[in-house]
Design a protein that fits this description.
The chain is 85% helix and 0% strand. The protein has helices at 2-16, 22-28, 31-72, 78-85, 92-107, 118-138, 141-173, 178-238. Helix 2 packs across helix 8 and helix 7 (141-173) runs antiparallel to helix 8. The chain is rod-shaped. Keywords: Cell cycle, Cell division, Cell inner membrane, Cell membrane, Membrane, Transmembrane, Transmembrane helix.
Length: 239
């Protein structure tokens, strides 16, 4: 307590000199508040890394869908398109197409083609592929949601702790001068500011990417329905 009272006095001297920087507020804070600040800064950096990664991923996914739809509806035969794509690492619509065509070709191999329940199997493999793509696109979005929901409360905890410690130190110094009170309150409120700094971008990014993922999944489901109808007609014609 005496050590923190001394830090309050030093903060008051700094305030009188007009130099209250973020670094000085952090350096003079209680150890618990420092841990909270470091954790919030780390969470903010982590969230920004996820935001950049997801921004690039969603942009790449949209471009892949556009390119595949252009090729798919260009009139190229399904066999040729499958021959081009089946040895690649495919995502989104291309992954749906390859999964369905692979099941189609397997069912027609051998002396006795297994086409009795082919339509159901194709629908099932496309559903599984959509689920996998959904998990890939939604990966680490939970981190953004968690930081967005908890960071303000963590920052508030640091603020409450810092204010309690500051008031105790002020009482020990037996001084109510504004120059003594202000630095302690400022360093405590700095924790709340860091909590909001981490939470606001995380919440905005989570809402945006969650919407983008929903739109991407809806496009894949629409393509799956259309492609399933195409294969269903071919199954009926061969039957």
């Amino acid at each position: 307590m005496e050590a923190h009272a001394q830090s309050i006095a030093e903060a008051a001297l700094v305030a009188q000199q007009g130099d209250i920087s973020f670094f000085s507020l952090f350096w003079q804070a209680h150890i618990v508040v420092k841990i909270v600040m470091i954790g919030l800064l780390a969470a903010s950096v982590w969230c920004w890394a996820i935001i950049v990664d997801k921004f690039m991923l969603m942009g790449r996914t949209k471009r892949q869908m556009n390119r595949f739809e252009t090729v798919f509806w260009s009139g190229q035969s399904l066999e040729e398109l499958y021959g081009t794509l089946h040895n690649r690492v495919n995502h989104s619509m291309a992954a749906l197409f390859v999964a369905a065509m692979r099941e189609w070709k397997r069912s027609h191999e051998g002396a006795k083609p297994a086409i009795a329940s082919l339509q159901q199997r194709i629908d099932r493999v496309m559903d599984v592929t959509i689920q996998r793509e959904s998990e890939r696109l939604e990966n680490r979005l939970l981190v953004l949601a968690t930081v967005g929901a908890s960071a303000p409360f963590i920052g508030l905890f640091g603020t409450v702790w810092g204010i309690m410690t500051a008031f105790q130190a002020i009482a020990a110094s037996e001084s109510t001068n504004l120059a003594v009170v202000a630095p302690g309150i400022a360093e405590a409120l700095f924790a709340t500011a860091l909590g909001l700094l981490a939470a606001i971008p995380a919440v905005i990014a989570y809402n945006k990417f969650n919407s983008d993922v929903g739109k991407a999944i809806a496009r894949m489901e629409g393509f799956a329905d259309e492609f399933s109808a195409i294969l269903s007609r071919q199954i009926d014609e061969r039957g």
